[in-house]
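Entry:
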Amino acid sequence: AVRAFATTGAMSSSRDVNWFRATGGTLFYLRHGYLVEGSEKVRIVVRDRDSGLELDEVALEEGTDYSIDYLSGRVRLSQPLSGTSASTWVLDNMNASATPMSGNLVYLNVSYEHEDQDGLAQRARGAYASTTIENRLSVGAGIVSEERDRQEDYRLMGADASLNIGEKSNLRAEVAASRQRDAIHVLSMDGGLSFGELQRDLAFNGKGSELQLAFKVSADFAVADWTDAHEFQDTSLSLYFQNLERGFASGDSVLDQGRLKFGGRMQHRLSDIDMILVRHEGQIAQVPRVGPALDDVMANPLPLVPDEAATYMTSIQWARDDARWHYKLEGMHQRISSTSALADGSAALDARRLGVGALTAYDYSDRVILRVGQQLVANTAEADPILQPITSSPPSLRGAEPLAGVVTNVGGDLQLAPDLSMTGDLFQRWNGDNAARVGFKSALSERGAMYVQEQIGGVDGRLSNATIVGAEDRFGEDGGGRSYGEYQMGHGPYGNRDRAVMGLGRRYQVTRHAGLGLGFEHQQAFGGYLPDGTSIGDAQRNVLHGSATYRRKGFRLAGQLELRLDNGDQGVQADEAVLNQDPREGLAPGGFADHGGVAPGAALVIAPGVGTHMLGGLTSEWRFHQEHSALARLRSSLSFHEAPGASEAITQAKFTELTTGWAYRPLRHDRFEMLTRYSYLMEQRPLALGDVAHVENSHVLALLPFARLASRVLLSGKLAVKRTLATDIVPQEGRKTNSVNAVLALVRGGYQFYGKWDGSAEVRQLALFGEIDNEWKLGSLLELGYSLSSQLRMAAGYNFGHFSDDELSDLKRDSHGLFMRITGMF
């Protein structure tokens, strides 16, 4: 197979790749507006909490999984996206304990093209060829080139091969090389209110003109492909070795560049009741030298040279289910090191950890279950950021917690009724913290349960309590419930660095006409540390979302509400100088994204202060007559942030979209149709603190008639009036306003010929009346279309004008040139 392509940019545009740590909500602001329609690619990516390897990827579909506002640059998911995904390992990696519930990290990845008047014209071309030999060996190779004006060209070339060595076994190899950066990559921890740039240090920029290499070799073996022995039918082994040089640029590889990764996983069933799991993960990463405290950054003689951080982990788990007895035993070894040093010259990160975890459960009777567990994690080095954390005051001073990794627990369950049980656990952490937990557990279906518990204990000689709410699996007969993890607020059995994450969602059909949906997620980190020891203090995030629908006799009403509350450390424990700034000479704030966002085990990082984010929507449609219907839609969002010590909160972003209309659509004939619409639009894009806030308010009234005349002649038009008030809120200078009134009129004529083909011509006039001057613009276009069915039409044409006919967007936007149009009718 051979594939080739060539494109030339009709307008100046640039490509951007936005990474978002999942917030538990649905709204994400992209870094730009004025997106090229259809250019976006939206994915959900799950990465391993320890190695950073990509575990899962789900491509989302526009209109089904998400909606996008191309003008304003907003993506709204149809379902909330949880911040973490459950891990299958019982013994927690102490390095990843800074992540809520130690779950794997979930990202939303959006790549897109956006209009850029200052961008560089570019032409892209490429080719890829592949072949398969005897249905076993597949090989391929390709090259992609982007020619850029006034900038060095981007090149990517590569080859791949795959060999099937059994029914379920295969070998794969890939090799590639790139020159220059393919796009700007940024990371946001707060849904797009702020971004940190990846690849921004000189370790990348200084190698842009050099050829950077990448390769990956992997293998999957199923032992059953070579033997019929019963004991090996469930035995499998996976191996991989991957290396991406820092500066290699291809697609979404930014989170893997500068990292050598290798490892393997094995699963083997010892017997019908015994299973063993083994894994080994290794990683050597080139990461920015940024911490763990500001004094350490400034004392570094080569602050722009990256660190070499190495992580190795080996884990083994044995599980047995033998009648009434249930056992789990895990062992872990981990080594973490870095070339970075503290201001006094000592190692910033050097940990050697050994961990053992065991859990035994016994079904005493049909109603009583008893269990006991023990965890032990010890460090044999002298620079462990978890067991020997660096305090924030005085900086770079380590505090010892030698027994922080030893935890004993006993507990049990008592079945009170067929669907109701009482559960209790006692935890003793050997550094002095202890806790008791008691609660009730109610089974909602065969697939899941939810529970509520109250925990009371002592920490540092003082009583404390915690409330725990959690849920498991999917529940409800219709599968409408979704739950994950656990929520724990307050001090608990793991001391002042407890982590918690909980998600719970449910759709209820209240009546035959009405439905209700509710959901909640909580993430919390106490005294968090990044993997290199940088203190991030306390952080918590709560997301509440609800929805409601009502349908009856031609009337439909749907509403949605979402509230997210972020609370970052008040500056007592968090090292703000390292987290929120970039003190290295010649680099602007907004760096260290690689440091706090993608490192394995990175914790929940929230800017100090309190952030509130609200999102709501309401849609209604009422067919009050056979030929008449009314419609209304409201969407609104508001985000504001109050920094520690600030006198008032600052609005970070907001938007409101209100549209009402009336439609005349006769059912007996389609000779004449009419649509009238009024819209109110208000938008303030996300801004960094200190930036100028630009707010636009618009009122739009439009009339859109359509007539089908004799002899297959179509006639349509539009008359729209728009008033826009733009306000710039300049710090220390106040408000500056400017208003513009616009009138848009267009007439469009079309003729159907040769079956399903049609041709159209349009003349349009735009009049602008501003406070400074007036402007008149005249435009026209030609279009050729084909109706694939009575509901779908495709067309292409050329626009001779230089302004937009979309009254809801920027009318001055230059839409000159070739275009394609797809129209759906229902």
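The chain has a mean pLDDT of 76.
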